[in-house]
Amino acid sequence: MSDNLQIVTIDGPSGVGKSTVSRKLAALLDFTYLDTGAMYRAVAYGCKQAGVQVEDEAAVESLLLEMKIDLLPPASPGDDVRVVLDDKEIGPLLRTPEMGMLASKVSALAVVRRKLTLMQQAMGKAGKLVAEGRDTGTVVFPQAAWKFYLDASSEERARRRVDQLRGRGEEVVEVEVLAQLIQRDRDDSERTIAPLKAAADAIRINSDNLNADEVVAKMLTEVEREQG
Ligand code: DC
Asked: What's the 101 CA to ligand 1 centre distance in angstroms?
């Protein structure tokens, strides 16, 4: 591990609990938490605000030149990373099913991936980072010291997402959430550039029967084992 960066990567499909687990693990290790999905969601949000179609690569490219995205540490420990677009905090507006689908579309564009991957790598230079997303172990930080691939069945993931959305007071139909989740997984796995996949050297964890704390405990054991 001495040649590797002190970086933990956590990849996996949508709704698998990566954010909860990453945030907890980062707090325990005293590492910075990097939510790469929030960056794709911020670009999607920026496109929507500007009336730019996410399929129109040339238009997205010129918008990207003007866009200023910053990730700031959470306001208090355990809170979400703060996403700032053009000096406006937009984090709470990004965690919607619509932004998830739009982010998935925009994330297939080479120009978007190039910009965000470089920003993510710059944040990883100092090490001590927990990065979560779809390609953090394969493309962004192939030299990370610890890589995890978190998975769960689509039904279980849809159930959790429904609970989360209902907990926020939103009305949702479970079969629609499941259909969207399956669609997004397919799009994210089948795209040409940096598709969702486990790095060859990632440790796979299935969370169908594990809660977030149990997943974090497993990860912590691996990190501590390889540190010593
Ligand atoms: O993790 P999330 O649901 O916030 O991610 C939203 C979308 O962003 C996801 O469907 C695909 C894209 N994404 C990506 O392509 N690469 C990443 N490293 C993270 C997210």
From this structure: 9
